[in-house]
Amino acid sequence: MAMDVIDYAIIGKDMQFVEIELDPGEAAVGEAGAMMMMQDGIEMDTVFGDGSRSGATSGLMGKLLGAGKRLVTGESLFTTIYHNESTGKRKVAFAAPYPGHIIPIDLRELGGTFICQKDSFLCAARGVSLGIAFQRKLGTALFGGEGFVMQKLEGDGLAFVHAGGTLVEKILSPGETLRVDTGCVVGFQPSVNFDIQYVGKLKSVIFGGEGLFFATLVGPGKVWLQSLPISRLAGRVLAYAPRPGGGGREEGSILGMLGNVLDGDNS
Amino acid sequence: MTERCGARLFGPGMPPAGQDVTLEWTPGLSLALVGSERPMNVPLASLKLRRVGFDARGVELAWQDAVGTWACQVLDGDAAERLVAGLPPPLDAARDELARGDRRARRGAAWPFVALAVVIGLPLLLLVLFILAQDRIVGAIAARIPAPVEAQLGALTLAQVRAGTRLTTSGPQYETVRRLARRLAGEDAPPRVFVAEDDAINAFALPGGTLVVNRGLIAATRTPEELAGVLAHEIQHVRLRHGLQALVRAAGMHVLWSLLAGDVGGSAAGEAASKLLGLKFSRDAEHEADQGGFDLLVTRGIDPRGMVSFFGTLARSSGSTPPALLSTHPPSAAREAALALRLNALASDCCAPLQMGNDWPPRP
Prior knowledge:
The complex is a heterodimer of chains A (about 270) and B (about 375).
Chain A: E1 7-11, E2 17-22, E3 27-31, E4 35-38, E5 42-48, H1 60-72, E6 78-84, E7 90-95, E8 100-106, E9 113-117, E10 121-125, E11 129-134, H2 138-143, E12 149-154, E13 158-164, E14 167-172, E15 177-181, E16 185-188, E17 193-198, H3 202-207, E18 213-218, E19 221-226, H4 230-240, H5 256-262
Antiparallel strand pairs in A: 1-2, 2-7, 3-6, 3-10, 4-7, 5-6, 8-13, 9-12, 9-16, 10-13, 11-12, 14-19, 15-18, 16-19, 17-18
Chain B: E1 3-10, E2 19-26, E3 30-34, E4 48-52, E5 58-64, E6 69-74, H1 77-85, H2 92-132, H3 134-144, H4 147-164, E7 167-168, H5 172-185, E8 192-196, E9 203-206, E10 210-214, H6 215-220, H7 224-239, H8 242-261, H9 268-274, H10 283-299, H11 305-317, H12 324-327, H13 332-344
Parallel strand pairs in B: 8-10
Antiparallel strand pairs in B: 1-2, 1-6, 2-3, 4-5, 5-6, 7-8, 9-10
C-alpha cells in the first residue's frame, strides 16, 4: 500500500505537538489519546490493530496478532485513523504526552525500518505499520535500559516519535562505536548494533553512579538519543514527593497477591 | 547461475543512513556490488564478515580502501544465509569465523537462562523436598529446639491469646480443670491451666505446656471423665511437642516460600510465631494425641469411655455450627470409631468414677 506523503510542522520548544497537513483523501494514524486538535472536514475512524493493512486482506487472526503486538509494546489496542474527507487541505495535531521532543523519522531514508523504544510512537502517515522487535540478547534486554521488547516501525512514509528531554540524532560511520547511558537510546536504524558493555572499573561502578553497563551502539547508521528518559524524571519527582504516613510495606514480589494469602489473616 | 539480493551500503560520501544497492554473486565464484551510483569493486581478500541486525540474522561485509571504511549489510536473514553460503573461496576463513561466532553466541545466550532456571528452580526444589519429607525434617529440627525456647514461644502465644480472650485462674471451673490436669500430668510437673471466657467448644495446648480450656467446652461435658479425656488429649499434644512442630513447619514453609517468591522480610519466624494460634495440627498429630491420651487415662485410672463419648457430643453439636475444635480436627465420628475398638478390649471395671462433687458441669 502506498504511503501518504504528509506535510507537517513541529510546534513548541519542550512540550511539543506536531501539526500534520492532510491533502484531500490523505490520512494519518495516531496513537489513541494523542490527538490534540483537528480541523473541520477530518474524520476519525478507530480501528482495531495498527491500521496499516486494509480490512479485506487481513483476516481476524491477523488483526488479533497486530493488536497483541501493540499490547506488548505498551500501545493501546486501537489506533485512530484521521482522514481528510473535505476538498481542501486540513490540519490535525498530535501532542506529546510528557516534556520532551518530537522527531520526524523518514522511513524511506532509513531503508524502511526503524527500531525505537516502546511507547514512543506518536503518529505516522497511513501505511506505516507498528510491530515488535524482540531483544534476543538477554544481557542487552536486562541491562540495556530498553527491556526485551522494542517497537518496529515499517513502511516508507513519515513517522513521528516522541521521547523525554532533548533528542539528538547521531550518525555513526561503519564500525564507529558510541557508548550511551542505559535508557537514553530512543531508536536506531536496524543496521546499527545495539549491545551492552560492562563499565569495567569497580570504582566507577560503585562511585561513578552510572551503573554496571553502558549501552553501546556500533555503526553504520543513524541513532537517536534522549537526554532524559521519563522513568528517570519520574524517579526524581517521586524522590521529592511528600509521603503521607511515611511507613508502609514494600511491594516486593511478582507473586505479591499470593504472598498476602500466605500471610494468613489479613482482616 | 547468478544470485542477487538487496543490501544497504554505508561509506564515505554515501547518505548517513545508507543507500540501497544490490549484491550479485555466483556461488563459490564471484561477488559484485551493482546498483550503486559509482561502480565499486569488493576487495574479496580483505573483506570482513560480521553479524548485524536487531535479531542478529543479517550479515555485514566490511572493507577498507583508500577513501575509507565501507560496510554493506544484508539484513534479511534468509538472503544473508544464501549470501554466506555462496561466498567465494577467498572468504572461507571468514565464513568459518562467522560460524564460530554464531556458535559462541548461542552458547552465550543459553547460560543466563540456565542461571535463571537455577535461581527459580532451586527454591522450588527445596520447597518440594520440604513438603515431601516434612515429617522427618520438622521432627529433626523440633527435637533440637531446647525447652526454654519452647517455653518462650508458649509465653509469646499466651500473650496473643490474652489479647483476644479473657483468661481466668479462679472459680470452681478453674479448680476442676487444675485438679484434673494435675492428676493426669503428675504432681511433679503440673501444667499451667487457664479457663477462657469463651462459649465456643474448644480447648488448646500451647508450646511449653500451658492448657487453655473454654467455658463452652466445660459446659458441654456431661461427666468429669469427658473433660479429663479432652485434657489428656491436649497434654499429649504438649508432650509430643506438636505445637512446636507445627511452628517449625510453618516457619520452614514461610522461609522457603519467601525464597521462591521474593520479599524475604527477615521476620519470617516471628510472623509464624504470631500465627501459631491459627495453626492446625496434622491429622496424624491428632490421631497420635488421641491414642496417647487414651493410654494416659488408663494409666491414671480414669475411665476412657468419657473421652470417647465426648466425640459423640462434638459430632452432634457439629450438626448446626461446627465448634471451633472441630474445624481443625478430623471428623469426630472417625476418631470415635478408632478408639471404640480399644474400648472393647478394656476391662469393664478398670477404673473408678471420678469424684468431682455433685453438680456437673461446674459453674464458673
